[in-house]
Design brief:
The chain is α/β, with parallel strands linked by helices. It has twelve helices and eight strands. The protein is globular, with a radius of gyration of 18 Å.
Length: 324
């Protein structure tokens, strides 16, 4: 497979982008979260996208391989990106490779589930069984390690009442709450069934309101944000053909604010894409043109493995240009 080309790490004047410069300096100095001397707050923002999120998952794995995890002060994740961020801080980031195993995807996605009265995307089986107990092939996630990590963990979700992006970190009291937050962040309307209750509120997938979770990071006073993208391009600002149908059916009893947020996702993504193209405080790593297309419900092992490796290659190539 051809390696993905590097993201643009430079600014128009040819200088190294500040995000990469700070990360490189922190790596060289051995700077650790909670003991900084540079005055910066550096955030990692990981895009979701269902199984397409494996691309950003591969990027996340590469950050671990490069020894850059401790260069961040906070990790923000949307949907599948929240899962990738949790694995990064779990003590076993290598487990991100599980994404490429067909058995892993089949626990999450079962197209016959609706015939048995269960959602097609079974978040309970995924997070409350596989992630909690593992099986003969997959180790469980160390949720306590995520909560105890010096790097702050911020999974996002969409409030069903307001349609607004919500940081779930205040709800992360213990491992059980963390698993619930992971389910809430990925609770796709229709595909994953009902919204997830947490802290007396109801939540849907973070992608309804903040697919690329950099805005919340900036609102939390991040001075620098590295954004891991799962999409090669943003094709249109219009909602998908299915969006109005889902808004009228699966979301018909939800608030008008939530339905509006759901229908405006395309326009919001296009605006984010334009803003991130030359943002002075945010640097994006995007999949290269040779990265395979991965659908939200993909389960093919070879395809998923190729997508993960493409994500890894994008970050490794980018960083090699950064430090050279």
């Amino acid at each position: 497979m051809t390696a993905a080309p590097p993201a643009d790490t430079t600014e128009p004047d040819g200088q190294l982008h500040p995000v990469w410069r700070v990360l490189a300096e922190r790596a060289r100095s051995g700077s650790r979260p909670g003991a900084r001397t540079d005055g910066h707050r550096v955030a990692l923002a990981i895009e979701g996208g269902g199984m397409r999120g494996i691309i950003a998952g591969g990027m996340t794995l590469a950050l671990h391989e490069l020894g850059l995890t401790d260069g961040f002060d906070a990790v923000y994740g949307a949907s599948a990106g929240a899962a990738s961020g949790a694995w990064l801080l779990s003590g076993s980031p290598e487990s991100l490779r599980f994404w490429a195993a067909p058995e892993y995807a089949r626990v999450l996605i079962r197209r016959s589930n609706p015939l048995r009265g269960r959602p097609m995307v079974d978040l309970h089986a995924f997070y409350e069984v596989l992630y909690r107990y593992g099986d003969r092939d997959f180790a469980p996630m160390d949720f306590d390690a995520v909560l105890a990590h010096a790097v702050e963990y911020h999974p996002l979700a969409t409030d069903a009442a307001t349609g607004e992006s919500t940081d779930l970190r205040p709800f992360l009291g213990d491992a059980a709450h963390l698993r619930t937050a992971l389910r809430a962040s990925a609770a796709l309307p229709l595909l994953a069934g009902r919204p997830v209750a947490l802290g007396g509120r109801r939540f849907y997938d973070a992608g309804v309101s903040e697919s690329i979770p950099y805005r919340t990071a900036l609102a939390h006073d991040a001075t620098h944000v590295l954004v891991l993208r799962s999409r090669r391009t943003i094709d249109a600002a219009r909602p998908s053909r299915s969006a109005p149908v889902i808004a009228r059916t699966a979301l018909r009893r939800e608030s008008a604010a939530l339905r509006r947020a759901f229908l405006e996702r395309g326009a919001r993504l296009a605006a984010d894409d334009a803003l991130l193209a030359d943002h002075p405080s945010a640097a994006s790593v995007r999949p290269g043109p040779d990265t395979p297309s991965v659908s939200r419900l993909a389960r093919d092992g070879e395809l998923l493995a190729a997508a993960l490796e493409a994500g890894r290659a994008a970050v490794h190539e980018t960083y090699s240009h950064t430090v050279s």
